[in-house]
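Might you be able to review the protein record set out just below?
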Amino acid sequence: MRIRALFCSKIKLVFRSTLAIPGGIDLRVEEVKYLSKKIMEAGEIPLVWGHFGVGKTDLAREIAEETGRELIILVISQMEPGDLIGLPARDENKTVFLKPDWWPENGNVILMIDEINRAHRSIRNAIMQLLIDRRIHNHLLPEGCWIMAAANPPDEEYDQVELITDPAFMSRFFHLEITPTPTEWIEWAKKVGVPNEINEFIKEYPEFLSRDTIVSMRLELRPSPRSWYKLGRVLKTFSSEDLKKYGYVLAAGILGPEAARTFIDQISGKQLLPKAEEILLELDEPLLNRLSSLDISGVSAMVSRLTKFLSELDDKAVQEYFERVPRIASNLLKLSKVIPRDSFFAIIRHIAYQLENEKGLKRVFFENLLEELATDSDVLNYLEKREN
């Protein structure tokens, strides 16, 4: 068959096991301030993303003033190892590290780590120790000390080489994106002494406030046992109104949007996503209508569920599904009519990836499934383009 010939020529298909996740949800200054306080009250750490000049540092100052705490700001991208971890000293026959000069004396403090994603490699381990163990060397942070962090997105004019994108590092935070309205920016600008001529101009022409209206974190947030634990700690501080208003935003900032949407839909009593088996084998008109009403996060969660299910088919399940390949292909093609094109072809990429990497009966199953799908001209054209 034509599609088999395509794969016999060893097409190299690039596939990611999870979809690329967009950034979090754009929030206004007051919303970020409220959520940051809630997160820190639970002993967790918010990371506020926003373009330069949107008031991230002033937001931290306001929280400090409102809670009666001292604010300590560490601009981490400008610090040398000794600035962060303290200098070594001799104590009889051993070396100890002195407390750095910024070290808080009591717990009534907010420690703000600014430009955290641009920390130099030489101090990243110390930052991790501070985040995980709340200590550096043998110096423990005082009980009750709050930590928050801030970062400028990587699409700004900075050296990109040193950016921290390690998922293990970034999973320590609740990611919040701040996008002030022109009114909020003007209020902030007045406080910091921006000339009135500029404020009046932005008031009249708000479209010129920034060329960047979207914050791109270039991160892929995924759920993990740690992230569920952290989410649970913060949700304990939420009222029912908080959960209704901010539940999804909070969850998406540490789980990613797909898991967050599914979780919030479940706890709010909305209809759950169908099982993968239902989509593959029992895709009737009512189910198709349900899927057509999903938002982009729901679609992504559904695609992730489908691809995970296909990845984990064991030999017994493959034998059971083998005779149902035409039905599965037909249902997937029906699905393609009600979900975004990119989402559907993420499924096709996954099936192609499985074909390239499986052996025996599973390989034959995916080969037959892709051949059936390639009876659709869009699928066939897509696969031929990938060959080229």
About this structure: The chain has two domains: 2-18+273-387, 26-179+214-255. The first helix runs from residue 2 to 8. The beta strands are 26-27, 46-49, 70-75, 88-91, 94-97, 109-114, 135-136, 139-140, 146-151, 174-178.
